[in-house]
Amino acid sequence: MKYVRVARERGARTFVLIFEGGDDLQADLLRFAAEERVLSGSLRGIGGFSKATLGYFVREQKAYEPIDVDEQVEVLSLLGTLSVMDGKPHAHMHATVGFRGGSVKGGHVQAGTVWPTLEIFVTEYSGELQRAMVPDVGAALIDLS
After folding, report:
1. Which of 38, 17, 25 lies closest to 129, judged by CA?
2. Per-residue pLDDT tens for 104-142?
3. Which terminus of the chain has fewer Cβ atoms in its 10 Å neighbourhood, N or C?
């Protein structure tokens, strides 16, 4: 994965991240956030996966039910946030992926192997967003307190 800063306005930066075939979306994105000290931001992207795991949050179980994607798909939309959890960068992403023939699946991104590319735009916000586990919900949520 390669990246470049393309803008800086009022203390906030915008980056373009270009992932290559075989790149691990989660690991490379978190490495970028740590290297650039991105403590809060939003991201959006398009591209492709050779395989991925999405998730659907099951309220009663307080856990994600995996949705395995074991074939090449188009990443039609990737949206998410960057924050800090337990002192480390954290990415929360959702994606819609398209299959040959036009069917789609979507959910919380748990894992993704890029192919042939993935283009992500990251917009940094000034300040820091903290994320913390909320036991009653069973998920890590942004904590504004």
Report:
1. 38
2. 999 999 999 999 999 999 999 988 999 999 999 999 999
3. C
Separation CA 59–CA 3 (nearest Å): 37
This model's pTM is above 0.90: yes
Task: Report in angstroms the alpha-carbon separations of 73 from 4, 43, 49, 77, 131.
Answer: 26, 20, 5, 12, 30
Closest CA to 43 of 88, 83, 78: 78
The domain over range 2-143 is classified in CATH as 3.40.50.1000: no
Instruction: Name the amino acid, one letter, at 86.
Output: D
**For the chain, what are the domain ranges?**
2-143
